[in-house]
Design brief:
The chain has 93 residues and is mainly alpha-helical. It has five helices and two strands. The protein has a two-stranded parallel ribbon. Strand 1, helix 2 and strand 2 form a beta-alpha-beta unit. The two termini are 17 Å apart.
Length: 93
């Protein structure tokens, strides 16, 4: 997908979002970010940012099904906006 998008002259980036604060979820996020980096696919790893910005593990995910809350969505949107606004290649496409 990265190659097809790049061939069309567009900027491509994969987002690894904040995941629930469990050992295997953190490991999955780290593994995915590592595989993307090894493949030279641009990636934003937000898992650490989500962990550093939340004070309560229940604030980002609903306890009953672990779907993201409005807090999670706000953190992801804020992080993506910062990346998009800083990257001139993204603004031009």
């Amino acid at each position: 997908m990265h190659e097809l998008v790049a061939a069309a002259g567009r900027h491509f980036i994969v987002v690894v979002p904040p995941l629930p604060d469990r050992k295997y979820d953190r490991a999955t996020g780290q593994k995915l970010a590592g595989l993307l980096a090894a493949s030279r696919v641009p990636c934003i790893d937000m898992s650490r940012e989500g962990n550093s910005r939340r004070s309560d593990s229940n604030a980002m995910f609903y306890r009953f099904d672990e779907h993201p809350t409005a807090t999670w969505h706000a953190i992801v949107a804020d992080s993506l906006a910062k990346v998009i606004l800083k990257d001139p290649a993204v603004r031009e496409s």
